[in-house]
Amino acid sequence: MWKKRLCFAAAAALLGLTMCTTARAVNAKGAVVIEAQSGRVLFGQNEHERLAMASTTKIMTAMLALEQEGLDEEFTVDPQAIRVEGSSMGLTEGDIVTLRTLAAGMLLASGNDAANAAAVRIAGSQDAFVQRMNERAAELELKDTSFETPSGLDGDNHYSTAYDMAMLARAALQNPDFAEICGQYRMTLSYGNPPYKRWLKNHNRLLQDYDGTIGVKTGFTKSAGRCLVSAAQRDGVTLICVTLGCPDDWRTHAQLLDSSFAQVQAADLASLLPELALPVGGGLADSVAVLPAADAHVALAEGEQERVKAEVTLRPFALAPVRAGECVGEACFTLDGEELLRLPLCTRDGVAARPVSEKKTGFWSGLWGRLFGKEAG
């Protein structure tokens, strides 16, 4: 199938932006700030250095737990799994829980017992679950990440980088259940034997101390030091900040987020696209409008807007019936030749097929004319 490609230079349609000075070096072993939509790095310091990441590990554990079916199905925790050192959501032998409850116990109370209980429930053993964690890390192309425990307790082969943890958080926040839970400062949960209601408080102080914070996870071990993954939204821009081995992480995150937000503003890349339509053969309509299937807002700095280009790849035509929301191509946006964002293009409406009698007359000649601007002969 041949492809129809169109290229457009960015024009004044993008919003005006302001720039501040780049953030200074911070007191952390590794640090990064990325823009969540594109994954673009706005600030980096040893962001690809392999380091212990403590309980920020539970971002992966909770994400996998919340992807399971039967999130609200009750079960009894494995008694061996919950016998673990460190932070806890207070599970005891015989407690009745759900995977959703355990995910909240991980993301708010940083429960090692919750992480291990979820791992055994999902995969049958902690080792089998760790294998799934590493498989997902490979799928997400977290090239400098290795998991050894579901909880984040230290291990020789348990490490990540500030960059990889930011990309992991970016993926996890796309799960609505994950985003909802990690953004809660307090939650009422029901568990126990029999279950009863109790409060859990989130360890992430930024949820109260930094305006716009939406998550995600704290961590600490003696080896890793203080670790923090945070995400915040402001004026249509979502940023993810990670520090590993940072003794003053709350203040550092506030400073890095403030500096990064000041550098960029949201720009709607969809405004760079012309009106797109796909020819339709054998339908009650000759064409159907095509639109980006997802939000096309990204964060850009001053002077970048005129350097963005959009390339559209569309199927040459579609045969009716056509479903609304059917993917028929993609748009790729680049900045200075580097990919910034790639989005599927989908049909806005559905197109019903013509009656058979009408298809026999004029179908191919009409399609030929729409594609090549002349009658078939």
Explain the overall architecture.
- Residues 21-246 form the Peptidase S11 D-alanyl-D-alanine carboxypeptidase A N-terminal domain.
- Removes C-terminal D-alanyl residues from sugar-peptide cell wall precursors.
- This is serine-type D-Ala-D-Ala carboxypeptidase.
- It holds the Pfam family PBP5_C.
- Belongs to the peptidase S11 family.
- This protein has 377 residues and is an alpha+beta fold.
- The chain has two domains: 4-13 and 269-372, Peptidoglycan synthesis regulatory factor (PBP3), Domain 2, CATH 2.60.410; 30-247, DD-peptidase/beta-lactamase superfamily (Beta-lactamase), CATH 3.40.710.10.
- It has helices at residues 58-66, 99-107, 112-123, 126-139, 162-172, 176-182, 206-209, 249-263, 356-359, 363-372; strands spanning 4-9, 30-35, 41-45, 75-76, 96-97, 186-192, 195-201, 213-221, 225-234, 237-244, 264-268, 276-281, 287-292, 297-301, 308-314, 318-319, 327-335, 338-347.
- The chain has a seven-stranded mixed β-sheet with strand order 1-15-17-18-13-12-16, with helices on one face. Strands 3-2-10-9-8 form a five-stranded antiparallel β-sheet, with helices on both faces. The protein has a two-stranded antiparallel sheet with strand order 4-5.
- Helix 1 packs across helix 3 and helix 3 crosses helix 4 (126-139).
